[in-house]
Structure formats: C-alpha cells, structure tokens
Write a structure and sequence with these properties.
The protein is mainly α. It is globular and about 55 Å long. It contains 18 helices and 2 strands.
C-alpha cells in the first residue's frame, strides 16, 4: 500500500492520486531517526557545559546564560537559510549542511577554550545552534512522503528520537573530560569533541542515507500527476503567512506554545533553588519535563491522525493550561512544580506535533520549505522572547504570577482554534 498524494485541484479524482512506496518512507524515517539521535547527543553533551565554559571564559557567572541565548539565536538564524537550501537542493543537502555547521561550532568552542577567548565561544555557540535548526527541520522531512493518515505519527517518531540523544548526551560529560585530557585540551571541552564527532556522523548519515531525497521525490510525484499543467509559482514564507490563514494559524500555535513552555521551564530552576531545592531535585524535575516533551510524542502523533490535528491542539492547550494553573496555585510545593513541568512538556508535545502536521498540510509541496523555515524561525524567536520576558515577570510578580501571565497565550490559541472549527477544510484535504 503506497503513500497517497493528492495534487491541488485533483480532489476526488483517482487521476490525482500519486504513490510513494512504504519501504521508501520507512527508509527515510530510519535515516532521520539515526541523524536525530546523533544530533541529540551532540547538542545534549554541550549545552550545559557551554554555560559553565561561558562563566569560566568571561570570568562572571552572569554570562553563563549567554550559552543558551546564543544557541537559540543561532537556531533562529539558520532556520530560513536551511529551508531555502532544502527548497533548492532537497533535504539531504540541507540537513547535512546544517550538521556540518554545528560541527564547526563545536570545533570553534574548543578553540575558544584553548585561546581563552569568550567572544569566540559565543560565535561557536551560534554555529552550534544550527544543530537545533536541523532537528526541527528533520520532523518536517518525515512528513514529505508520509501518507496523510500517518503524517502525524511519522513526524512524531522523528521528534521522539530526540529523547535518546538528549538522555545520552549529558551522560558523556565524564568520558568527554577523560578524552579531552588525553588530547591535552582544557577542562570542559571534551564533550565538545564528542559533539563534533556526532555532528559529523549525522551529516554523513543524512548525506548518504536520504536517497531518494524525500522532498525532491515528493515534488517529482506531484509533477507527474499534474497532467502537463504548469507548476505553481513558489511564494516566500512571509507571503504565505499573509495569504494563507491555515498556515498562519499552524505557525502561531507552534510559536505561542513554545513561548509558554520556555517561559515557565526556564525560570523553574531559579524558583526551586531559591526555595531550597537541591541541584539533584532541580535536575530531576527538568529531566521529567524533557521526558514529557518527547517520550509520548508518538502517542500525540497517532491521536492527531485519528481524531484530527486541531482536536489534539486543543488537548495540548488544555495540558498547558493545567500546568500553568498548578504552577500558579502551588508554587511553594516542589512536588506540584514537578507535576506542572511534566504537564507543560506533554502540552508542548501535543501542540507542536499536531501543529507541525498542519504546517505541512496547509500548503502545496513547492511551498513547504518556505513556510517550514518561517515556522522554525518563529518558534525559536518566540522561545527566546519568552525566556527573556520570563525573568522580568518572575522578578515582578513571582513564579505564580508567571504561570498566570502565560495563561493569556494559551487563551489566544484556544480561542483561535475554536473560531476556526475542528473540521478540516476542503483545501486542507487536497494537500499532500
């Protein structure tokens, strides 16, 4: 049974259905999962150490937060260029190029420690952010050849695989230091060597494994089913946002959900520590949160295929709302905060998985990379803004106030979803 593809204007006609074999899609998913695991190891092994290295090279702990900030900015900056590269040359070239840029970032970070240059570290962290952009684009690559009835599941499986690398990466701190010492490198740089190696391996996996390229193959299939019609002109991501309400809605859901998640999550360690929680309790809470973000994503992908994308968006927003209310009502309880963070991760997962499928379904194949790049840019920008704003809100009204403030963003998504209605439009049903 093949992956059914409908071309615009062919709905309801058998001549408009194209097919990609399931073995091809399974191969694509296997390659993407392998690349995600390697990329996750690379990122997980360095982000925490990046904060420590930033504090050491700058001479002040106040600069430690720049590690996450620069990496997020790097991911945002890489989103659109990598999407354009995918549009021009396919996913294989785009994903492997992004992984190579991330490997250059790891090498630059090591060089900054050797030279003792803090600005060079910041540059390396920006380049490392390209690895996060690759991770986000990989979930869209999983949707290129997917059947409409399994698109959410396929996308979510690739997102789920990030869990493996995120769990393995931090456990490489010790071995990384041993490797770094053996190579004569400064402390805190050994894990960056692992990151360099993992990103190079991920680039090789994408470059050699994504054959046929899923995006290019989907385009060829669409072209073969157009009965000689001229291809549709391609639009920029911003033009699509202005003219396509379905795409605008899906991009907004991802951005606002990510902003809510980052705002509360980023301030939780500060809040727990200020109330006497040990570093192990803080770490355990964040680990459970990350598990909530990724571990059940295939479940939400399956649900979005079965009961509808927007229904799962509402489920995700309900979970986010529950997380914020728990945080607001019981901010003094470590257990309640932990429960809140788990609900926060689950809500993020349900919202992002279902809305990512909607992003792919809102436009025709030629326009997918453009709107996907804008979506990833918006997601990273919203996360950076949410994290920056959360600190100010926490200082002004406390952790409970932060939770209640974020309810406004959830309310926007819920209202927008209800106004749109839960039934897919005829236009959405004709997308690949």
């Amino acid at each position: 049974m093949g992956a059914a593809v409908k071309t615009p204007g062919k709905a309801g006609r058998s001549g408009g259905r194209l097919h990609a074999g399931q073995p091809t899609q399974r191969r694509v998913l296997s390659v993407l999962v392998a690349g995600q695991i390697l990329g996750g190891i690379g990122m997980g092994a360095t982000l925490s150490l990046g904060a420590l290295l930033a504090a050491e090279l700058s001479g002040s702990a106040a600069w430690s937060g720049m590690a996450a900030t620069m990496s997020t900015l790097g991911a945002a900056a890489a989103a659109v260029p990598l999407a354009r590269l995918a549009e021009a040359s396919g996913r294989r070239v785009s994903l492997s190029t992004g992984a190579l840029i991330a490997s250059l970032g790891a090498a630059t970070a090591v060089g900054s420690a050797v030279a003792g240059l803090f600005p060079l570290l910041l540059a390396g962290l920006v380049l490392l952010g390209s690895g996060s952009a690759v991770s986000l684009q990989a979930r869209f690559a999983a949707a290129d050849l997917a059947e409409p009835q399994t698109r959410g599941r396929d996308l979510s499986v690739v997102l789920w695989s990030t869990t493996i690398g995120a769990v393995l990466g931090p456990n490489l701190f010790g071995p990384g230091e041993a490797v770094g010492a053996a190579l004569g490198l400064p402390p805190l740089t050994g894990a960056f060597v692992f990151s360099l190696t993992a990103q190079l391996a991920a680039a090789a996996v994408y470059l050699t494994g994504l054959r046929p390229d899923p995006l290019l193959a989907a385009r060829r299939m669409q072209g073969s089913g157009n009965d000689g019609a001229a291809p549709l002109p391609r639009k920029s991501g911003l033009v699509i946002l202005r003219t396509n309400p379905a795409a605008r809605y899906a991009v907004a859901v991802i951005a606002l959900s990510h902003a809510v998640m980052v705002a509360l999550m980023s301030m939780t360690p500060v809040h727990l520590s200020s109330h006497g929680a040990s570093i192990s309790i803080v770490g355990f809470t964040i680990s459970l949160h990350i598990a909530g973000m990724y571990a059940l994503s295939p479940v939400f992908g399956w649900l979005s295929d079965r009961i509808g994308r927007k229904s799962v968006v509402l489920l995700g927003q309900g979970l986010l709302l529950a997380a914020l209310i728990v945080a607001g009502l019981a901010a003094q309880s470590t257990l309640a905060v932990t429960v809140s963070l788990v609900l926060l991760g689950l809500g993020w997962s349900a919202s992002v998985v279902s809305a990512s499928a909607l992003v792919s379904e809102a436009v025709a194949i030629p326009e997918r990379p453009a709107i996907q790049g804008i979506s990833d840019l918006g997601m990273n920008a919203a996360g950076a803004l949410g994290g920056a704003s959360a600190g100010l809100i926490l200082a002004a009204v406390g952790y409970s106030g932060l939770g209640y403030s974020a309810v406004l963003l959830v309310a926007v998504v819920i209202a927008w979803t209800v106004l749109q209605g839960l039934r897919p439009t005829a236009k959405e049903n004709t997308r690949v």
